[in-house]
Write a structure and sequence with these properties.
The longest helix has 19 residues. The chain is globular. The relative contact order is 0.13. It has 249 residues and is of the alpha+beta class. A six-stranded mixed beta sheet has the order 4-3-5-6-7-8, sandwiched between helices. It folds into two domains: 126 residues, Fructose-1,6-Bisphosphatase, subunit A, domain 1 (Fructose-1,6-Bisphosphatase, Chain A, domain 1, 2-Layer Sandwich), CATH 3.30.540; 106 residues, D-Maltodextrin-Binding Protein, domain 2 (3-Layer(aba) Sandwich), CATH 3.40.190.80.
């Protein structure tokens, strides 16, 4: 199958997830963390991931699956699906429309298909080699950039200092969008996103979407290793490079 074929299947998965998440009446969250820090999960998170996993298992039983709520299922080949059934659970439990469903397909560890689905707004952002329809802006300077991060209060120490330098240099800053910020970067209405503390299920789907739109995505040092959870996305290479310089100053 081609990336376009897998992307079409990812759309089917997102449709199935919507039947669970959009109809969820119970948005009461429990805390997954025992250390006191807050990481909410709802029944809809778990139910949506179960639905997606079942469909993948039927269509591609040899594929691996790595989901936020139910961990990893080993596969027999080179493909693994990365799932975050509700990215932005805080927005979900607050009744805000910016939460998303993230679905990615990795081949030999590299994301080749990414889908950011925004059920409440009925928006969908697909990325893979050869995909069309998305175009990042041509913003090349931080002074002209529309910057976003989910929660600036999650930064500490050097990360907080670095983000504050970005914020002071940017034209405007908007917060609270979670993965939706990357979708809007791919659509051209946000120019720069900087976050930290992300896990693979948080960023795998973002990478193909941003790149398919002509944007840049990497870590805060300008590389492609996301293992420390730092993610930086920009509309253009020039803006990405300036942001890296500011963050590392």
């Amino acid at each position: 199958m081609s990336p376009a074929d897998f992307a079409a299947f990812a759309v089917t998965l997102a449709d199935a997830a919507r039947t669970v998440t959009l109809g969820a009446a119970d948005r009461v969250a429990e805390n997954k963390n025992a250390d006191g820090t807050y990481d909410p999960v709802t029944a809809a998170d778990r139910a949506a991931e179960r639905v997606i996993r079942a469909l993948i298992g039927q269509a591609f039983p040899e594929h691996g699956i790595a989901g936020e709520e139910f961990g990893e299922k080993a596969g027999a080949g080179r493909f693994v699906w990365s799932l975050d059934p509700i990215d932005g659970t805080r927005a979900f439990i607050c009744g805000l429309p910016s939460w998303t469903t993230l679905i990615a397909l990795l081949e030999e560890g590299e994301p080749i298909v990414g889908l950011i689905d925004v059920p409440v707004l009925d928006e969908r952002y697909l990325g893979y080699a050869g995909a069309g329809g998305l175009k990042a802006s041509d913003c090349r300077r931080l002074a002209e950039a529309r910057l976003s991060t989910t929660d600036p209060w999650l930064f500490a120490g050097a990360e907080a200092d670095g983000f504050e330098r970005l914020r002071r240099g940017a034209r405007v800053t908007r917060c609270g969008l979670d993965a939706y910020a990357y979708a809007r970067l791919a659509a051209g209405s946000i120019d720069l996103v900087a976050e930290s503390g992300l896990k693979p299920h948080d960023y795998n789907a973002l990478i193909p979407v941003v790149r398919a739109a002509g944007g840049m995505i990497g870590n805060w040092r300008g590389g492609n290793d996301f293992s420390d959870g730092q993610v930086l996305a920009a509309a253009t290479p020039a803006l990405f490079e300036e942001a890296v310089r500011v963050l590392s100053r």
